[in-house]
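Quick one, T. Sequence first:
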Amino acid sequence: MRGLLPFVALLIVTAALRPASADFWEKKKYPEWSKKEIQKMLNDSPWARPVEFHPDLAADDKEKPGRATCEGCSGGGPRPGMPDLAPTVMLVVRWQSALPVKQATAAARFGAEVTTTREAIEFLGRREPFYVIAVAGLPPEALPGADKLKSGAVLKARNKAPMPVAEVTVQAQGKLAAVYFAFPRSQPIALEDEETEFSLRLGSSDIKRKFKLKEMVYDGRLEL
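Structure tokens:
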């Protein structure tokens, strides 16, 4: 029995030192990504994270189906002074300018022809002049004007001044919308900053998402 103990201890140490399984974007080139992997890159990866959003409830919207009120709260009916609650909406905050996200976007659109189609080649070869963050899945009725969107959004790297928005673009996606916020690269973000946070004020709600920069290294470099 004593003779087995050093062997067992060696196995434990070896297992602890063994590197964790690599993510699909580290094991495969983007043309080989499956549809499921493409969706994961775009919706739940180091470059794209889900976040909850509680849109404001307009006063004339209170009787519409799907609206929740405090009638379901513990203790009985509506509570005086308590606001009506709109359904929770799941959004995705995504670094649209990051190379792996661009590759997933192109692969989703062009499929097997992503490496041969001129439009895809030019899109992937273009250096993005801005950091572009997309907020996808927004109800159009929750969106204010472009000026309010622009003034309500901030990108901040740790220990650096907040970046103001340079441009805002709204794009319809079926019944929902995506808003693209462009931030200047004149204030570069580096690995030493450790993390960034994007925040957006919409009505009485704040949409916030932090990103860890060490997780956003792709093919040997920080990709934003």
